[in-house]
């Protein structure tokens, strides 16, 4: 079977292939709402002759991509699709899923995007997409950031379990990086509650003077926050005029990453 697939690929002309396109169309008709479809339903939806539809279905069945559903006489996705899905999930991780959307976010906002995760009492930058501006941030992959300062850190701290938050807040005193760094546990509690209410975190000059950041949470399939997505740049560029748009872009991108992770069951 592998040899036949190889020969087919070599013989295929450059560009789109009508037969391949229609075969993929058949597969994409199956979804959670309609996991079983009859040949007649497929024929009607794709406006194909029934004989052509049967030919495609038989070809897909020979590769295990669809199988007949004994109880209804229709067809459902086959075990080969499950194997492909497992392989796709194994090749995916948080950075792989997030990077293309982070690149879109940077193109949209013009500022550097960071992907961060919590490790004990710290936050680690696991992915970064730089802006094209001459004046830009120097955060690197693997850089360790404080958990109590900056939007990318506070958005992770805010969504921990209450007992975890209290345990961390009791570990003070917290280091002060700039005049804007919040070190008072009571003030931090108020800020964290506000972050959970708004659904995003914002900071200015808490780790580096003159740097403004906006961050939103990324959720896994269990609705737990596993990472933070942030945009950061000089406050003179992320000014009050553009700030609402940056906040919206960060939140929407974080939601898209969360949905993608949930679709892939990561």
Query: The CATH topology of the largest domain, please?
Result: Beta-Lactamase
Number of strands: 8
Give start-end ranges of low-pLDDT stretches.
Answer: 1-16
Quick one: overall form?
Answer: elongated
Structural class: alpha+beta
The tally of helices reads: 10
* CATH architecture call of the largest domain: 2-Layer Sandwich
Largest sheet: 6 strands, antiparallel
Helix content: 40-55%
Strand content: 15-25%
Helices and strands, in order, run as HHHHEEHHEEEHHHEEEH
What would CATH call the homologous superfamily of the largest domain?
Answer: GAF domain
Q: According to CATH, what is the class of the largest domain?
A: Alpha Beta
Please give the alpha-carbon distance between the first and last residues. Answer: 31 Å
Architecture overview:
With 266 residues, this protein is an alpha+beta fold. The chain has 2 domains: 2-87, Arc Repressor Mutant, subunit A (Orthogonal Bundle); 94-264, Beta-Lactamase (2-Layer Sandwich). Helix content is 46%, strand content 18%. The chain has helices at residues 2-11, 18-28, 39-46, 50-62, 79-90, 94-109, 151-158, 162-169, 185-198, 243-264; strands at residues 66-68, 75-77, 112-119, 122-129, 144-146, 201-204, 211-219, 225-234. The strands form 2 sheets. Strands 5-4-3-8-7-6 form a 6-stranded antiparallel sheet, sandwiched between helices. The longest helix has 22 residues, at 243-264. It starts with a helix and ends with a helix. Mean pLDDT is 85; it is low at 1-16.
Quick overview:
This protein is 46% helix and 18% strand. The protein is built from 10 helices and 8 strands. The strands form 2 sheets. A 6-stranded antiparallel β-sheet has the order 5-4-3-8-7-6, sandwiched between helices. The chain has a two-stranded antiparallel sheet with strand order 1-2.
């Amino acid at each position: 079977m592998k040899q036949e697939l190889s020969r087919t690929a070599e013989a295929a002309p450059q560009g789109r292939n009508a037969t391949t396109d229609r075969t993929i169309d058949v597969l994409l008709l199956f979804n959670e709402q309609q996991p079983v479809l009859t040949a007649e339903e497929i024929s009607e939806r794709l406006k194909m002759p029934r004989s052509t539809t049967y030919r495609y279905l038989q070809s897909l069945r020979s590769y295990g991509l669809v199988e007949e559903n004994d109880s209804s006489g229709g067809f459902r996705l086959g075990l080969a699709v499950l194997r492909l899905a497992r392989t796709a999930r194994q090749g995916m991780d948080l950075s792989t899923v997030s990077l293309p959307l982070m690149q879109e976010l940077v193109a949209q906002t013009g500022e550097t995007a960071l992907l961060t995760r919590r490790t004990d009492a710290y936050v680690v930058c696991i992915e970064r997409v730089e802006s094209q501006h001459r004046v830009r941030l120097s955060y690197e992959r693997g850089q360790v950031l404080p958990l109590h300062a900056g939007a990318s850190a506070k958005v992770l701290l805010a969504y921990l379990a209450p007992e975890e938050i209290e345990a961390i807040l009791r570990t003070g005193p917290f280091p002060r990086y700039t005049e804007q760094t919040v070190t008072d546990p009571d003030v931090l509690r108020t800020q964290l509650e506000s972050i959970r209410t708004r659904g995003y975190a914002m900071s200015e000059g808490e780790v580096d003077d003159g740097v403004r950041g906006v961050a939103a949470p990324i959720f896994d399939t269990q609705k737990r926050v596993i990472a933070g997505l942030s945009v950061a740049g000089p406050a003179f560029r992320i000014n009050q005029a553009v700030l609402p748009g940056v906040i919206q872009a960060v939140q929407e991108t974080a939601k898209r990453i969360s949905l993608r992770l949930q679709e892939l069951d990561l």
